[in-house]
Design brief:
two-stranded antiparallel ribbon; mainly alpha; MetI-like fold; about 80% helix
Length: about 280
């Protein structure tokens, strides 16, 4: 046991240096304002008041939540049927399809987003294809459509994998029992498959909504700076304006929103799991 504890020390130090310390610095900057001396800080809530009283910043926050919600709903509507179809395949085909879905995630997300910039441009692949039918060019880049498309593309594998895991862990004997009791395929899906797969849906919502609401480089690249989300505001406060105090306050507000979302998502997950056992 003593040897095991000794082996954990490097990980504890890593967590303290890379996670705990940066979070403490964000809290420090969020609740203070810098004085003339770099090491002098004065406690204040002005950074938070500035955000919640400014209509522009609130509009950016609501837009971020809206985009994240739309992205999550689309990922559910597209991801569930895909996961369901894959789960019905044989073991070999199942493995191949999951591999194909996860392969794009091996490439850096920034590179994949840059690729979509080339696809959606007026002279890009999609408009060139539409040109074959005498259509276009259709303006797609630097629009909300491009931002949502980029987010769905980058985050939908997480939704598919979570739902697929729930469907694969499901006891197939329950489906046979439902059929023996006279349930048709639709009734079996609605009363057995869907309820038992909801934990995977809830986990997928967590893995899609949370990164989507705080994403900054997808709207920056595909939105062209014209579609600003809260992640872009935080980035600009740290890198452009140099107002670390205000940027930290916005980061804390987003952290609170994310933690509240995780809390309710966890409660829903527990409720769904309990209902499934009953």
């Amino acid at each position: 046991m003593k040897q095991f504890r000794t082996m954990t020390y490097p990980y504890v130090l890593w967590i303290a240096a890379m996670i705990v310390l940066p979070m403490l610095l964000i809290v420090l900057y969020a609740f203070t304002e810098s004085g003339n001396d770099v090491l002098t800080f004065r406690f204040t809530l002005e950074n938070f008041a500035r955000f919640v009283t400014d209509r522009v910043f609130l509009a950016v926050l609501w837009r971020s939540l809206y985009i994240a919600l739309v992205t999550t709903v689309i990922c559910i509507l597209l991801g569930y049927p895909i996961a369901y179809v894959i789960a019905q395949m044989g073991e070999r085909a199942n493995t191949i399809m999951i591999l194909l879905i996860t392969m794009p995630t091996w490439v850096n997300m920034l590179v994949r987003t840059y690729a979509w910039m080339g696809i959606l441009q007026d002279e890009g692949v999609l408009n060139s294809f539409l040109g074959l039918f005498g259509l276009g060019p259709v303006p797609m880049i630097h629009t909300s459509f491009a931002v949502i498309l980029g987010m769905v593309y980058n985050f939908i594998p997480f939704m598919i994998l979570q739902i697929h895991t729930s469907l694969n862990k499901m006891d197939k004997n329950l489906l046979n029992a439902a059929a023996d009791l006279g349930a048709d395929r639709i009734q079996t899906f609605l009363r057995v498959t869907l309820p038992l797969s909801l934990p995977g849906v809830v986990s997928g919502i967590t893995l899609v909504f949370l990164p989507a609401v705080s994403s900054f480089f997808i709207p920056k690249l595909l939105g062209g700076g014209q579609y600003v989300l809260v992640g872009n505001v935080i980035e600009s406060q740290f890198l452009t304006s140099g107002d670390w105090n205000f940027g930290s306050a916005i980061s804390m507000i987003m952290a609170i929103i994310i933690m509240v979302s995780m809390y309710f998502t966890r409660k829903i997950d527990v409720s769904v799991a309990s209902a499934g056992k009953e």
